[in-house]
Design a protein that fits this description.
Elements (H helix, E strand, L loop, with lengths): L4 H13 L2 H8 L3 H15 L4 E4 L2 E4 L1 H32 L1 E6 L2 H14 L4 E6 L2 H9 L5 E5 L7 E9 L1 E5 L13 H4 L5 E3 L4 H12 L8 E3 L2 H9 L5 E4 L10 E3 L8 E8 L5 H8 L7
Parallel strand pairs: 3-4, 3-5, 8-9
Antiparallel strand pairs: 1-2, 5-12, 6-12, 7-10, 7-11
Helix pairs in contact: 1-2, 1-3, 1-4, 2-3
């Protein structure tokens, strides 16, 4: 009866992700390979590790006990590998970072690079759902986003808090130097992001809470598109307060109903090891208040 490391990794990946396909993506192998490894382990010991309910897998009590024991072993192995790789990484490794907002992610990267200038940083910028997928699919090692999913697969730590604000051209009549209400904004053409944007989810929720259903004049799929539309006086848009350092032809306005700061997170897949990932998490301590 062989309790091989490949079988244990397959079982643990299925336990963490909840299905064979997600576990296969995590391990970088095919879905049939993962399923076969789990079946082989069950057959070798005459046990059942998962209850099958259609496409869903529910871990048995035995599986949960096995995971509690073997996940510690995997963590120790990953720490050992990280120690062996540390010298090479700090001398010239690569860190892949996903950003939902250009800021504060760029500020974090600046802090990181000031300490470790020889490390190459590759950046992927996208909307909220794109960056979550990049973390899950391991296209990036670590990411910075608001509203990280409440999922046991992720490790997350708050790096700052910020609110969503309205933005307009400095010459827009709503730019009076004080807060505005969400109802006032409906008097003007509005620029929205697409639904998979974290900014737009906050905006939609605020309008719904106020009993309003405005129709946007323009819908854009990127933050840069939002900024350019507003700078060219096409309407009033929305952005995370520290989501961009751009100041030309852009005025930020506090919206009364949105004047609540929400956390921005650094996050990675739980168990993602490596000295560079740890150092990037630590870089948040260097951000200015």
């Amino acid at each position: 009866m062989a309790l091989t490391s490949s079988r244990v990794r397959a079982v643990n990946a299925v336990y963490e992700s909840g299905n064979f396909s997600a576990a296969a993506r995590t391990l970088g192998v095919s879905q049939p390979s993962v399923a076969q490894l789990v079946r082989d382990l069950e057959a070798a010991f005459g046990v059942s590790l998962f209850d099958r309910h259609g496409q869903s897998l529910v871990a048995t009590q035995l599986c949960r006990q096995l995971y509690a024991a073997t996940s510690r072993i995997q963590s120790i192995e990953a720490d050992a590998v990280a120690i062996l790789q540390q010298r090479e990484e700090l001398a010239g490794g690569e860190l892949r970072v996903g950003l939902g907002n250009a800021m504060p992610g760029m500020a974090l990267i600046s802090s990181f690079k000031s300490l470790y200038p020889k490390i190459q940083v590759r950046i992927e910028i996208g909307n909220w759902s794109d960056i979550v997928a990049a973390v899950v699919d391991r296209r990036v090692d670590v990411a910075v986003l608001p509203e990280v999913p409440q999922d046991r697969r992720f490790r997350s730590e708050v790096c700052l808090s910020q609110r969503v604000v309205a933005i307009c051209h400095p010459g827009h009549p709503i730019n009076r130097g004080g807060p505005v209400s969400i109802a006032e904004l409906t008097k003007y053409p509005l620029v929205f992001r697409t639904r998979n944007s974290s900014t737009q989810r906050v905006v939609d929720k605020t309008f719904r809470s106020a009993g309003l259903q405005p129709e946007p004049a323009i819908v854009v799929n990127t933050r840069e598109g939002m900024l350019e539309a507003v700078a060219n006086q096409l309407g009033v848009g929305f952005i995370w307060e520290h989501g961009s350092s751009r100041a030309d032809r852009i005025a930020r306005i506090v919206v009364t109903e949105m004047d609540v700061e929400l956390p921005e997170y650094i996050f990675s897949l739980l168990g993602t090891k490596g000295r560079l990932v740890e150092l990037f998490f630590q870089a948040r301590n260097l951000l200015p208040p």
